[in-house]
C-alpha cells in the first residue's frame, strides 16, 4: 500500500502557491492550503482540488507567529496526518524604493514576512519528518527569488536580502538534516506573472522588463510549480541543498 503524501504549502491562496497546491493535488498529495487574509481565494483552491477528487483543507495562519504555526501543524496532524512535504512559499514585498527610502520598520517587517515563517514551518516539519524523531523522512522546498542573486537594486533590496537569507538557510539546513531522511532545496523564481507585483506598486512590471530577459518573456506560476514538484518528487531523490533558477535565463 502506497503511503499517503501530505503537503503543506504556505501562502497558497494565490500565485505560485495556488498553482503548486493544484499541481500537487493532481499528483496525489493531500494538501493544506495555508493563507493569511484571503479566505475566499483559499477555499476556491480547496474546491478545485476536491473537484478533481483530491483531499485538501484551508487553514488561516500567520506563519511569522510561532503559536499559529504550531496550531496549524497540529490541525494538519489531525485532518491529514504528519506531513511528508513542505513548500515554504509565503512571502511579501512592499513598494519599490531605494534603500534610503526604506524605514527600519519596513525592513524588519520584510525580514519577518519572508524569513521567520520559513524557519518556523521548517522546524515543525523536521519534528515530524526526521528519522531521528521516528519520522519517515520528507522533502522541503523553499521559495527564494532571483533577487537573492541580482539584489533588486532600486526596487526591493530589502526583499532581496531576505531571500538571500532563505538561500543560506536552505544550504545549512540541507546539510544539517540530510542524514535524517529529509531533502531541502529551493527555487528562485523571477519575473513571474503574479499579483505580487501589485504589492510593489507596479502591476505591469514583468511586461516592462521582459525585453531584458534572455527568453524575452515573463514566466507563469505553473512553470515554477513544476520545478517545485520535481524537487519534492522521488525523481529528485539525490538532490539536496540545491537551487533551480526560474527566471528566463536572467
Question: Could you characterize the architecture of this molecule?
Answer:
Helix content is 44%, strand content 16%. By secondary structure, it is of the alpha/beta class. It has one domain: Rossmann fold (3-Layer(aba) Sandwich), CATH 3.40.50.720.
What is the topology?
Blueprint: E1 5-9, H1 15-26, E2 29-35, H2 39-51, E3 56-60, H3 66-79, E4 85-88, H4 104-129, E5 138-143, H5 147-150, H6 157-177, E6 182-189, H7 196-199, H8 205-209, H9 221-232, E7 243-246
Parallel strand pairs: 1-2, 1-4, 2-3, 4-5, 5-6, 6-7
Helix pairs in contact: 1-2, 1-9, 3-4, 4-6
List keywords for this structure.
250 residues; alpha/beta; 44% helix; 9 helices; 7 strands; Rossmann fold
Q: Structural class of the helices, strands and pairings?
A: alpha/beta
Tell me the Rg in angstroms: 17 Å
The sequence of SSEs as H and E is: EHEHEHEHEHHEHHHE
In spatial order, strands of the major sheet run 3-2-1-4-5-6-7
Give the termini separation: 44 Å
Compute the number of helices.
9
| Overall structural domain count | 1
Largest sheet geometry: 7 strands, parallel
As for the CATH topology, it is: Rossmann fold
- Low-pLDDT residue intervals, each spanning 5 or more residues: none
Mean pLDDT: 94
Shape: globular
Number of strands: 7
CATH superfamily membership, which one?
A: NAD(P)-binding Rossmann-like Domain
Helix content: 40-55%
Based on the structure given, which CATH architecture is correct? 3-Layer(aba) Sandwich
CATH class category: Alpha Beta
Portion of residues in beta strands equals: 15-25%
